[in-house]
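YM 10:42: Mutator family transposase sequence, as discussed on the call
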Amino acid sequence: MTDTAVELETVEPVESAQSGQPAPVSDEQLVAMLVERARSEGLQLTGQGGLLQQLTKRVLESALEGEITDHLGYEKHDPAGKNNGNSRNGTRAKTVLTDVGPVEVKVPRDTAGSFEPQIVKKRQRRLTGVDEMVLSLSAKGLTHGEISAHLAEVYGAEVSKQTVSTITDKVMDGMAEWQNRPLDRVYPVLFVDAINVKIRDGKVANRPIYVVMAVTVDGTRDILGIWAGDGGEGAKYWLHVFTELKNRGLDDVLMLVCDGLKGLPEAVETVWPRTIVQTCVVHLLRNSFRYAARQDWDKVAGALKPVYTAPSEDAATERFLEFQESWGAKYPAIVKLWSDAWAEFVPFLSFDVEIRKVICSTNAIESVNARIRGSVRARGHFPNEAAALKCIYMALMSLDPTGKGRKRWTMRWKAPLNAFQIAFEGRLTPSNN
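YM 10:58: structure's back
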């Protein structure tokens, strides 16, 4: 491909067979002619003066001309507009940032100054596609400088770091509304987990960001909110979080799955006294591996599997005693870990296998955490708490863009829903939607 750009004005119009005068070329005809010419002559498609920029300019200016025609009520040079009190008053040049780079357009004006263009509004310097692209890149963890460099390299668009910051700051209003939105009256399961992020507040230190995710009565996943902890994640802290959820309309939770967070069971009992607190089995296994040598991981996992797949609590106790006999001498810390968590580990053993699948299979919350960790890791650390929450919020809003994950969950939900209905009779009412 050459560096030769094509000018729209160089495309020769087709003469009319009747008048011998050049016939007007429609936008569709122009596009077809330019694309064919680009193919045959190797014309520049992207970059300054490229085909895509000029097509964007043509489309925008055509749309603006249509807007002022609708505003005035008559076509350009139409005698009907004479002495009607308002008329066209030339144009003003304006450069807007688009997905294909900066494009200079001529914006029409009227003598009364009442024309308000919509396709390129007054004081607007970016079209929406650029904002969406910046938000998408930010959600993937790119820093403001990296986003600016990416847009300049790929699209030839000069976007300052301050502009990127301005665009991403727009999400904060939406975040506040999302964090305070009304909730359903009851959820079958809540998952509570924490992600550690580095925040530079005088000095860089780890701070927990807590995520609460629900499985709805319809079988879909819903992130109920995110909170920045200060290290005091005791009963008082969790009481504040759960009270906030209750004030937003959440009256009952059947089961709450967590990773043994300090003070959480006591807070749950205060807000939702009938809720069963269940230790996350996946987290329990993962924490066990911290105390085992790498070459023993598979053996330890195999020895613990009969414990969490046991048909009853009594059977699980027997299997755990067998594990203790085999591995207790070598890894006493693993035995203590499971013993300390036993009261919150065993509740799910008394439920149907369909309920166990929902509770033990934490793929839902794990996939959410993986996306959050990816964004956080790419950023390194954050200047303050608000910046960390903004990054995580954008990562959450970009989850499951195709909707395939939501569809899979809904398709597998009927059997667990029936099991929950039987186990928690009278507390769960499915949606009619």
